[in-house]
Write a structure and sequence with these properties.
Blueprint (H helix, E strand, L loop, with lengths): L12 H11 L2 E9 L2 E13 L2 E6 L4 E2 L4 H18 L4 E3 L4 E4 L8 E2 L1 H12 L3 E2 L8 E6 L4 H7 L2 H12 L2 E5 L5 H15 L6 H13 L3 E8 L2 E11 L2 E9 L8 H15 L4 E3 L14 H8 L4 E5 L3 E3 L3 H16 L2
Parallel strand pairs: 3-5, 13-14
Antiparallel strand pairs: 1-2, 2-3, 2-4, 5-16, 6-7, 6-15, 8-16, 9-14, 9-15, 10-11, 11-12, 12-13
Helix pairs in contact: 1-7, 5-8
Length: 336
Amino acid sequence: MRELPGAHVLQTWEWGDFKRETGRWEPLRLAFERECQVIAMASLLTRKMGPLSVQYVSKGPVLDCSDTELAEQVLSALERRARRFGVVWLKIDPDVVAATGLPNSPNDQTHKTGRAIMGTLRKRGWRLSDSQVQFRNTLTIDLRQSEDEILAAMSGNTRRKIRVAGKKGVTVRPATTDDLPLLYRLYQITGERDQFLIRPFEYYRRAWEQFMRAGLAQAFIAEYGGVAIAHVILFHFGRKCWYFYGASSNDDRARMPNYLLQWEAIKWAKAQGYAVYDMWGAPDAFDESDSLWGVYQFKRGFRGQLTRHIGAWDFASHPTMYYVYTKALPRMLGRM
C-alpha cells in the first residue's frame, strides 16, 4: 500500500490492529486488483453499538481517485458490503485534496480530482458528513525543497524563535520506547494547561510503542539542562510524515523549544526521504472563533501550504435509521 496514491498511516494494518485493541472496532482489509496488481485498498473498521453497527474507512480508501472507473468500482464494493451487513452508516475520508490556499483568497486553487470525486460521491447518494472525525484541513510542507529553501520560506519570527531555542541551551534528542512515561507526563501537563481531555496512559503506550517498534513513528524530546521540556511525536508512512502529537511543560517555554522541535522534525522527515511534512490540523473556519486558531498561528509560521481535503462522507444503507442516529437522537438527548 505504501506506493498507492493517498497512502495513509491510518490505513495501515497496524492502525487497524490498534483500533481493535483500544476502540472495539473490528478491521477488515480489502484489496482491489487489476491484472494481478493491487490498485486500491481499504481498511474497513466495523463497530457494533447494541443491535446497530457502523463502518469507517479512516483516511481511505486508498486509490488513484483520478481513475473514475476505479473509484466507482471501489465505492460500489463498499456500498454493497454496507447494505449486506445493514450498517447505519459507512463513513469514508480519503486523503484527497479539494483545494489549497485560503478560501476566497487570490491563492485559492481548486483541485480537479478532488472536485470530481466529490461529484461522484454526491451522484451515488453519499452525504458530506456532519461528523468530521479527522482534520479536514491541514498545512503541508514540500520536503523536496532544500533545507535552506524550507527555512527561508518561514516567517522571520519563526526563524528567530528557532535560533533563540538554540542560543538558550535547548537541545533535541530522539526518544525511545523507554521514554514513553515521560512523553505521557508532558502530554498530561499540556492537556491540563490547554484544557483538552486525554486518554489513560495505556492507550498512548500502545499507540506510540507499537508504531515506534513497527518503524511507523518517531518521537523527539527537547531538553534544557538535561530536563525534558517538550516533545513531538511523528507518524510516517508512504510519502508523508505527520506531526500527530506535541506537548510541553509549564517551565522554560520562553526558550521556544517547540519551534526547534518542529525544525528538527522537518529535517528528520526530509532525511528519511519523505516528500511531505503534514502538520495535521488547521481550522475549519479561518478566524479567531475556531478552536484551532491559536495552534494554527504557530503552524502557519512554518509557511506550509494550506491544504483542504474533501472531508468525510457518509453512505446511509438505511436512510431512516441514519436520520434517527445522526439527527433526531442528538436533538432528543439535547433536550433531556
